[in-house]
Specification:
This protein is of the alpha/beta class. It has 8 helices and 8 strands; from the N terminus they run αβααββββααααβββα.
Amino acid sequence: MSPAQGRTIPLSLPRRWVGDLLAFSQRVPTVAGEKILRLRPLMEARRSANYRPSWCALVTKSFGIVSSRIPELRRSYLGFPYPRLYEHAVSVAAIAVNREFQGEPAVFMGLMQAPENRSLREIDAGLVELTKGPHGEIGCYRRLIRTTRLPRPIRRLLWWYGLCVDGKQKSCIFGTFSVNSTASMRFQVRQFVTPITSTLYYSSVGANGDMPVQMAIDHRVFDGVTVGRAFAELEKVLTKDMVAEISGAPE
């Protein structure tokens, strides 16, 4: 008896833009590091605070502050017309947001400029907009949808230009660093790819205040020593700067 015949499913827009993302991520020599951050002071301050910011807001703002202190984290590799590094004036966070689009789950990258200069409340409000706002009213989502509807050769050319040619456009379209988490689903990502300089993955915080954090980087831009500095500074910002902001937040 012959097996039942399957069916061909055309690629949806979300599958297309993930394919574009991976196509360019595979060209980047990525390495990854991991550290467990000791965040008991932050966990306790957040637990007793009148306003409890989301962990995504805390990590996003903290890494923005770290990037302002370590210039290498604001640099991007550009390969055309000659290999060079471009240092961005401010950080732009690209936050992975899981949403439904045209009846299926989709991952969007919500952009937030200079998170280090925003309050935690402002970042949380921006996250709510990225999570629940209409797709057509969010500029970075609207641009992604519009670009992905183009024929593959044209959209791949646009991706290439944004990632490899113009530093300013690269930060405006793709960000200078990205933040991702699967903490709510209780699993960790073990394989990392990124088309930009750095991607930060954080896991859920344990009962003792420990948070596993992974960082994938473009090795052409900086080395593992910088990753170690970034982790140390990130833990410092989370346990000091963020504790101070939470403790001083009005009800």
